[in-house]
């Protein structure tokens, strides 16, 4: 009986993880971008160049899936050095005080054939609020070296004022910076390979 219990103790965790896969973000094939209105008439786009994340996906039951990500705010790039410096200043992100943006999922649900809705806690500028990402997921494919990869395209919109990013300036056309920020993520992830048992 003790032998049976010991065997079950060893096997059950593996069964619980069956159908699950942990995928690490491949930043060299991923982008984390944002867009916001400028003077009402145009859209300024930027991205964060340094970020990491882990997706634990259960295809059999997506509700058991989880997502976690961290962005280095100092890697912000809008292709204009002066604007980047202003965005990193206390007027906006205040990177000296709040160097990272984090996301941790609280709920994952199926949405249509290839879609997911991922709800989670976004922490930005020291403020944590729930956001929901609309996600399109690709099937698994094999990479150039036999590794397993997947792709995810995710979008959401936030009001920057909800996160304490309130700086603005009124001009003739209206506010210099829009309040609504569109976030667009194009992510490629690589599946963890099981480690060989020690001999």
UniProtKB/TrEMBL annotation:
Gene3D superfamilies: Lipid/polyisoprenoid-binding, YceI-like (2.40.128.110). Keywords: Signal. Pfam families: YceI. InterPro entries: Lipid/polyisoprenoid-bd_YceI (IPR007372), TTHA0802/YceI-like_sf (IPR036761). Residues 1-18 form the signal peptide. The keyword NAD does not apply. Coiled coil: none annotated. Residues 22-190 form the Lipid/polyisoprenoid-binding YceI-like domain. The keyword Signal applies. This is Polyisoprenoid-binding protein.
């Amino acid at each position: 009986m003790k032998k049976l219990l010991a065997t079950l103790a060893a096997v059950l965790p593996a069964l619980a993880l069956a159908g699950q896969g942990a995928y690490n973000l491949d930043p060299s094939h991923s982008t984390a971008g944002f867009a916001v209105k400028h003077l009402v008439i145009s859209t300024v786009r930027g991205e964060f160049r340094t970020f990491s994340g882990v997706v634990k996906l259960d295809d059999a039951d997506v509700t058991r899936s989880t997502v976690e990500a961290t962005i280095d705010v100092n890697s912000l790039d809008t292709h204009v050095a002066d604007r980047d410096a202003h965005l990193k200043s206390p007027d906006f992100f205040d990177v000296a005080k709040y160097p990272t943006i984090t996301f941790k999922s609280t709920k994952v649900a199926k949405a249509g054939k290839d879609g997911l809705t991922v709800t989670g806690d976004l922490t930005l500028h020291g403020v944590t609020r729930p956001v929901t990402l609309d996600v399109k997921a690709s099937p698994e494919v094999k990479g150039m070296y036999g590794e397993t990869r997947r792709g995810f395209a995710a979008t959401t919109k936030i009001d920057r004022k909800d996160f304490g990013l309130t700086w603005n300036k009124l001009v003739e056309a209206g506010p210099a910076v829009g309040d609504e920020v569109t976030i667009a993520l194009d992510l490629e992830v690589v599946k963890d390979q099981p480690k060989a048992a020690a001999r």
